[in-house]
Protein 1
Amino acid sequence: MNSLLGGSNSINNTSSLLQRALSRSSKGRRFNSSPFLKNNKSNKNALFGSTVKSTGNTQKLYYNMKYHAGQVSDYAKKLTEKGEKSLFAKAKESGSTAEVVASIKGFVGQYNSMLQNLKDSGGAAYYNYAAQLNSVSSVNSSELASCGITRNSDGTLSVDDGKLGSADVETLEKVWNGSSFASRTGLWADSIESAAERSMEAKASSSYSNLFNNYGSKGNYFNFFG
């Protein structure tokens, strides 16, 4: 202990191990004050940077996927609702398709974002979801086109505002309330939302496990950050 606290070098030139340990344990300075993390960028990235960045980006992707899938599901339920309070019943009563059109455009926007999230994930399961969605939109491409919705080669959907806005309520109802496109897509979106949530939980659990495993493999607190 005397050799650690005293040392042969001047206290102005070299901090003692005890001083460095205390400095690292100070609130808000645990990581920033460590010479290892301050002066060695590659080691910092190896220990925390790359892992945290990767975990954060992946979690954000799953969060976005869950959100967009949930939105697709909500729009699908709204567009496929039956009865006096449905969008189409209201449109027939009012003579305006504005609310129906807005819901279709909202559906398309969220659908495209969800599809992009599936592709960005790179996972086989999510690729399978994308393939199923592409299959559903492909089968219904002619009906979609009749109201201004074009299926693109990458599976995304595009809206022709003029054609969609001028479509009569009967045509819109046939495509979005009477066919299988919106309802089947909504069911797939429900599954994707649940899968994304499970992936978020699994990723979080794995990240914490890896952090503590790495901590343990380095020894005690002072060795780990020293």
Protein 2
Amino acid sequence: MAMNWILKAQDFENLKMSHMSTSDRVAASREAKFIVLGINEIYKRTKDSKLMDIMKRVTEKKRRIDKRLKGRLDI
């Protein structure tokens, strides 16, 4: 089961961010949240540091996508 989440995370990490539509970004952001929550359930039981590293990488990419979705704030 953990392997399935790891494969999903790898696919997400390899996802190209260029030329994504807004709906693609929303879908990618939701997918990232789903992946992190799934891996987190396994991490709670195993405390495997590799899983934490995967979650960090997916979360970082999700933050970049979310930043692009929200746009820049004008000061």
Protein 3
Amino acid sequence: MRKFLLCFLLVAASFDCMAQSLDKMSWFNEPEKWKIKDGTLSMFVTPKSDYWRISHYGFTVDDAPFYYTTYGGEFEVKVKVTGDYKVRFDQAGLMLRIDHENYIKAGIEFVDGKYNLSTVVTHKTSDWSVITLDKSVPYIWIKAVRRLDAVEVFYSFDDKEYVMMRNAWLQDNTPVQVGVMAACPDGDGFNVKFEHFKVKHLPDSRRLEWLKNNAE
């Protein structure tokens, strides 16, 4: 029995180490320079790249680096972001993407010399909301929770206290590409790193309600 328990713990530990392995994720718009070391993804963000559709600016672009995995249900995702932001619109954070017309990107964005907590929600056309910070920060934690047809986006400076920055619609019962993105629309690129990326499966809330109402 002791030997069986030991084997079980070793297998469980190996699965834990393999969970959300960055090595098993995929690139959309792979940048020229990137590496993964000790669970950290570092990249040099592709110059003149971004995600945006039509509204206000009148153009559509879909060419910034996005490193992702795919989830079909409800989940929580979070990551720690550290960037060497230099010029207007340098940005980095999370992205949840169904396709080129439906996605949410959220993180930190450098605009007019200030750091902004930024969310872009796109359904055919893009919108943009910001929370301006009163000082620069060395890093930021971004978390998104997908429940039914809504995504709640949060930020934190310490991975303990999270504050909501956006609640947005996203089609439910549809697979979502979820991962990290960075863009440099106006500059010549910058360095960014993503640490502690983690996706946690959340049991489907409709199914939980059905099970509750139909308990044996």
